[in-house]
UniProtKB/TrEMBL annotation, chains A, B:
<protein>
    <submittedName>
        <fullName>RibD C-terminal domain-containing protein</fullName>
    </submittedName>
</protein>
<dbReference type="InterPro" id="IPR050765">
    <property type="entry name" value="Riboflavin_Biosynth_HTPR"/>
</dbReference>
<dbReference type="Pfam" id="PF01872">
    <property type="entry name" value="RibD_C"/>
</dbReference>
<dbReference type="InterPro" id="IPR002734">
    <property type="entry name" value="RibDG_C"/>
</dbReference>
<dbReference type="InterPro" id="IPR024072">
    <property type="entry name" value="DHFR-like_dom_sf"/>
</dbReference>
<dbReference type="GO" id="GO:0008703">
    <property type="term" value="F:5-amino-6-(5-phosphoribosylamino)uracil reductase activity"/>
</dbReference>
<dbReference type="GO" id="GO:0009231">
    <property type="term" value="P:riboflavin biosynthetic process"/>
</dbReference>
<feature type="domain" description="Bacterial bifunctional deaminase-reductase C-terminal">
    <location>
        <begin position="60"/>
        <end position="188"/>
    </location>
</feature>
Length: 214, 214
């Protein structure tokens, strides 16, 4: 079995945006309300940040608990890593996730402004200024036979879709609208020429979209 | 997190039967047609017996690939293990699954006719004549902190439901009718007093039923 490039649990609004405009330190998703977009995942038993033994074990939980299965590396865009733009003023910023990031693998951050790698718990961040195919090669080697997760944001996923490098994709469409921001698609139907698509409504209100290559 | 007892990928007909009458060496599911009941699972990329790189990666694949996640032992009834009834004539029978059973963990077979344990590849079968709570204790110890899968058949699952030992249950209801056989339920609604229930239709035609304790 070859190493797949998988988008997992990526969230967009009903009008196709992965995040709003005006990202800042206080608002990682800009004008988008993360509470409304990600409530479905936070309600599940397998949500990584859960500290009690509750949570639902229905359909949505299959998606949250699949997040780490057979994943050996992640690729993300710089705006998923942090709100800064342009050259780094310093290297104090170490991501949004505190001392124990939820990745547990090497993470490759695509940026025109590389900086030294660093490690937090069992996650190591590397910063690379290259094209999608080249960073995918690096991530596959680091993943040691496992799959690679493409973590987003929407602009980064679009780059990999345009380069035809994505093998499978799970996108949760939330029942909210945003009007502007970082767009993944006008409509998921745009991808039907290259992908099988299953549309699975969840009792929680999100609609899971499952793509895999034809 | 405690060790759950989980039913995974158990199949029943629309009228509630897990298998038909007249089980035999040639017909593990008796009068039921396994092709019609299990086609949804066999079509997925993660089906354990798949030897090519094809298969669907939609909703149904989430269920097949979750089969082994965090499972440390299985409990099954004797009729899942084999077609024999009564005392063993000999110990030549080693299950339906050939030299590499798909369990990869200790398996506890409930039977009134114990026989010595044996190992095939990374699966060891134990034979125990006891009650559901006691075999669950044994399986939890063998699972070393992981969950325990309750493998069926329907009669065995009923025993554990009646003893209120089941924590989560995934049952795939196939669009076929059987009329008689080994019955899991008259209706899944029977369990709503004790369990949350999500009913998720799949594009393949099966309807996934997901239960977890209230």
């Amino acid at each position: 079995m070859s190493q797949l490039l998988r988008v997992q649990n990526f969230n967009v609004t009903r009008d196709g945006f992965g995040a709003g405009e005006n990202q800042s330190l206080e608002r990682p998703f800009g004008d988008a309300d993360p509470g409304a977009m990600f409530a479905w995942a936070g309600a599940t038993a397998s949500w990584p940040a859960r500290t009690d033994s509750g949570g639902s074990r229905g359909l949505d939980d299959y998606f949250t608990r699949d997040f780490t299965r057979n994943i050996g590396a992640e690729i993300m865009g710089r705006n998923k890593f942090g709100p800064q733009r342009g050259p780094w003023r310093d290297h104090d910023w170490r991501g949004w996730w505190g001392d124990e990031p939820p990745f547990h693998t090497p993470v490759f951050v695509l940026t025109h402004h590389p900086r030294p790698s660093f490690t937090l718990a069992d996650t190591t961040f590397h910063f690379v200024d290259t094209d999608p195919a080249s960073v995918l090669d690096q991530a596959r080697e680091a993943a040691q036979g496992k799959d690679v997760r493409l973590g987003g944001g929407a602009t980064t996923i679009r780059q990999f879709l345009d380069a035809d490098l994505v093998d499978t994709m799970h996108v949760a469409v939330s029942p909210v609208e945003l009007g502007s921001g970082s767009r993944l698609w006008e409509s998921p139907d745009e991808l039907r020429d290259r992908f099988h698509l299953e549309v699975v409504p969840s009792p929680s209100g999100v609609v899971h979209h499952l793509f895999w290559r034809k």
